[in-house]
Here is the input.
Amino acid sequence: MLKPAGLENAKGIVSTAVIKHPDDPAWADDEGVKDYVACFRSCDERGACQYPDPAGDELTRENIRDLAQNIDVQPTMYIDGVKFITSPDDLDPIKTFQLIQFDGEKWVQLDAPITAE
Here is the structure.
């Protein structure tokens, strides 16, 4: 996305990130990224993958709503320190972000993740 403008012109741009990009060499040895890649390699020809289903057989509107309003997880593909949290009073799930800066070739993490609260 930055190449058309020229990578040299994008050097120093600051942005935010929440996930580990599987194509970024910085995450090549990360267990969460390895699990993610393995999961997608196990998909069938339709692209369907097996994953845990917290709703089980109870696919009612109420159950799905209750599950969506009570999440507190650190997904393995999220940068350490970034969590996905919802509650009945707060459905905005991500409040912590990793600042990243483009160095002319790749995105580099800046310090520890920050919280938007």
Remarks:
- Helices lie at 7-10, 31-41, 61-68.
- The mean pLDDT is 86.
- The beta strands are 14-17, 72-73, 84-85, 96-102, 107-115.
